[in-house]
Amino acid sequence: MLELLKKSAMEQSRALKDKEVSAVELTKASLERIKSIDEKIGAFNSLTEDIAIKTAKEVDDKIAKGEELPLLAGVPLALKDNMNLIGSKTTASSKILENFVSPYNATATQKLLDNLIPIVGKANLDEFAMGSSNENSAFKKVHNPWNLKKVPGGSSGGSAASVASCEATIALGSDTGGSIRLPASFCGIVGMKPTYGKVSRYGLIAFASSLDQIGPFARTVEDAAALLEVISGYDKHDSTSLKLPVENYRSSLNNDIKGMKIGVVKELTSEGLAEDVQKAIQNAIETYKSLGAEVVEVSLPNLKHSIGIYYILATAECSSNLARFDGVKYGHRTTDAKNLLEMYCKTRAEGFGPEVKRRIMLGTYALSSGYYDAYYKKALQMRRVVTEDFIKAFEKVDALIAPTCPNTAFDLGAKTEDPLAMYLTDIATISANLAGLPAISIPAGFDRDGMPIGLQIMTPQLTEAKLFNLSYKFEQAHDYYKQLANI
Ligand code: GLN
Q1: What count of other Cβ atoms lies within 10 Å of the Cβ of residue 438?
Q2: pTM of the model
């Protein structure tokens, strides 16, 4: 069965249709693999075995009746544990929500269930999706399947590690400043953040609402494209959801890219890169040239401000979003309070971890009277300036490429004492969230220690089809995606 688990989602779908394996067998194989190896990886906070088996049985019923299967039906999926799924705990890897049971399904989750995709478990993350290494989970760290001493990247580290280790075939994550693309890059898989508004955020525990976006993880570009087709679409429950038809991205994956213009982001490739990452970018440039694309250097002069802008806006928004966790409606409530104010304070002091507290304090400061104009308002204005840089760049090129991260996965513990060093990990990913752009990380080689390197591609808003097309062409020109972590 391991051979089957290693196959892509599309291959698994075919195997199900051809009756080489049943959906229940495939789902059980995934659950068994999790039970046998996840102690070493830590990708799952909980398993949702009953839900997965029930869905798999529905798939087998349909197959037995000769009915058409929905896209990706029967393919085992890991759901980041900040998305609601009825019948599961949704903890956001926080003590404050340790025993919180989802009262309703997130829209993205409902779409998975509608397509009969078995959800095998809830994937570990940095607490409330705040982090870049998955070391901020209140429960346990996630280990990188390529080298268990290294981080998987964050915040969707559990989702990425589960797919890289073939515990699950596909996964969902959320990306506020890189939380899908960074772990995809560190774990050698595909991770994609759609245009802001493509996927409903209803039922996703909010971190920074103007930046958050749900997206797919997979081991191939085609699988990621298929999963985005399943979860995207307008939703009246999310006021920022875009009223646009669901597209078929798979039909244009293999389009010729001859004559396309690709910009290499100067600010992300000229200095500070690990040598092997630099080589991988050079290799990507050569690949695109050999596929007939024109490659030029493009400058995004204000990109250097993006970390500062992000860590004001994201913390400001999170300080407001997390105000609801006060012991009244959701999750943990202290047992030891003499009055209401003490109940609020103790509940939050006991329930939130150190990084979440740091962010709430920073955000509250940036929004406080007297500082609002100097920090929050300035950051909003600068967000527009960064967005303008992209608009200008896309007048000249179809797509931008850069590394997903200047370095490969680092050792567990290497940056936990230095929050600023951790924040700098996001230098290449954050600007796509600020500008609301679709962006992807795809496998682009390995460093001298055998750790995966990710290539990031960004395109204008709502041009996901082009993004997947460029990704697929690169993927098929190499066999990086065929190499799997040996675990
Ligand atoms: N690493 C970034 C942060 O800590 C991004 C997190 C995310 O995208 N959710 O905020």
Answers
A1: 26
A2: 0.98
